[in-house]
From TrEMBL:
InterPro entries per UniProt: DPS_DNA-bd, DPS_DNA-bd_CS, Ferritin-like, Ferritin-like_SF, Ferritin_DPS_dom
Protein name: DNA starvation/stationary phase protection protein
Provenance organism: Pseudomarimonas arenosa
SUPFAM superfamilies found in the cross-reference section: Ferritin-like
PROSITE patterns associated with the record: DPS_1 (PS00818), DPS_2 (PS00819)
Lineage, top ranks: Bacteria, Pseudomonadati, Pseudomonadota, Gammaproteobacteria, Lysobacterales
PANTHER family given in the database record: DNA PROTECTION DURING STARVATION PROTEIN, GENERAL STRESS PROTEIN 20U
Similarity comment text for this entry: Belongs to the Dps family.
Family matches, as Pfam families: Ferritin
Biased composition (Basic residues): 1-13
Residue span, Ferritin/DPS domain: 35-175
One Gene Ontology term of the molecular function aspect: ferric iron binding
Amino acid sequence: MSKSKAKASKKASKPTSLPVDIGISKGDRQAIADSLSRLLADSYSLYLKTHNFHWNITGPMFNTLHLMFETQYTEQWQALDDIAERIRALGQRAPGSYREFARLSSIDDNAADIAAGDWRGMVTELVLANEAVCRTAREAFKATDKAADQPTEDLLTQRLQVHEKTAWMLRSLLE
């Protein structure tokens, strides 16, 4: 077989991209994916902050918070995949770089400013960051409601339950 016929054969056998047709318009899918991208960025920022504090906690609260933070960042890690995969299921590209997350996130990257022994500062930062994720998730409901996107609404509801409970538990440590 000649080289030109081999190239033509490869082109012919290459699968074509099928358009996404899940009952949600392209514009609505884009709006939902944009909201989820902000949620993914906030969630990733929270994950990094929580993992950082897990590594750097010291003092009398070490064991309690070290284990608590590990439980939290492990759950957050799985959630990142769920959010990104929902963006992909909507036919959009999921953000995945530090630059994109920094641009999209509403969470301050000030974890390095907190001293290792300042457990109250760490807990306070995590309360604020979990609440930021809640606000971002709630904002995303605007796009999902408009499009009747129940799978994304379910994902958002699950994330709200986790982050509201986590914020409450962390806040209780400060009382």
